[in-house]
Amino acid sequence: MLPNDPIMLLSYVNTKLRDSYATLDLLCSDLNIDRDALVRKLDAVDYTYDARQNRFV
């Protein structure tokens, strides 16, 4: 289950991306996460996915 708090979610997702997944698409597919919903939730707290860095910044 994903953290509900956006900042905790940011930390969780960035850690997973750093440690286990080469792309956001792979993370979302493997964990059965709605990519668009995740991106919207983190965008609401001014974080966007940077594919080059493979993290939300």
Folded structure, characterized:
It contains 3 helices and 2 strands. It has 57 residues and is mostly helical. The chain has a two-stranded antiparallel ribbon.
Proportion of residues in extended strands:
5-15%
3D shape: globular
Strand adjacency order, main sheet: 1-2
Proportion in helices? 40-55%
Sheet with most strands? 2 strands, antiparallel
Radius of gyration: 10 Å
Low-confidence stretches: none
Number of strand elements: 2
Q: Quickly count the helices.
A: 3
Q: How much is the average pLDDT? A: 97
Q: Please provide the ordered H/E string of secondary-structure elements.
A: HHHEE
Topology (SSEs and partners):
Blueprint: H1 6-19, H2 24-31, H3 35-43, E1 49-50, E2 55-56
Antiparallel strand pairs: 1-2
What keyword list fits this structure?
mainly alpha, globular, 57 residues, 54% helix, 3 helices
Task: Summarize this entry quickly.
The chain is mainly α and 57 residues long. The protein contains three helices and two strands, in the order H-H-H-E-E.
